[in-house]
Amino acid sequence: MRVVVTGSRGKVGRATAQAFADAGHDVVGVDLVRPVFDAGVVVPGRYVQADLTDAGSAFAVVAGADAVVHTAAIPQPTGNPPHVVLETNLMSTFNLVEAAVRFGVKRFVNVSSESIVGNFFPERPFLPDYLPMDEEHPLYPQDPYALSKAFGEQLMDAAVRRSDLRTISIRPSTVHNEDNYESNLGKQVRDPSNLSANFWSYIDVYDLADALVLAAQSDLPGHEVFYIASPDNAGGHDFAAILHQYYGDQVPLRPIDRVDASGISTAKAQRLLGWTPKRSWRDYLDEDGHALDR
Question: Is the model's pTM score more than 0.90?
């Protein structure tokens, strides 16, 4: 396939472009930054600099594509004015979907977020209705980032109603690679009292990239939504024990399939996409949360 990967210079985009190239696809990388021509720097395939909030630019990069994998976004509501976060994320997605519909693209893979539930950056904090989180959990977005992801998934729903485009939304847990496992997850591995809104969940960027390739290659109809997270929690802690220790009975715990379970269920992705995660924090950190010698 000819696959357009947006945000191809970002952490997720780089790994995704490489995964598609490794799978034998023709990759067109798209991002805001200027092309770099030094050997070893350019992402696989062709690269196009484009601002996807501009409709003409979005149409130009989508023309001729078999699939669009949309990883580009402002990744959180902090650091930019709220209207910039919402406008950038929403309009880039809208423009790409509109182009995909008009050009008859077969598959659109939309990178959403675990933050879509709304409990990551709330002005009025709340806890999930239950854990592990799954695709049936209600959404309660408050902040502009969570709203942009919720609206993005609604754009997928609308697209499949009016066209033959097949769409998949992937909701990754917090993404890590070899550069940031220690700084991001090390403290949770050492001490689970370092709480996070995703309840010690995480995903390796290369496992996420594998899921995005499977999503683009899938022939599932309509619009499907999948959480993507590692099956274990950061630190390999007894999930039921630490959940009760730090949250008491505030969050109902549903059945889990392993003692060190994640706070997010990926049963649906494993069942319908055939996705199998291959990497763990243990590939990067020791039991004290420090980086392994590599």
Answer: yes
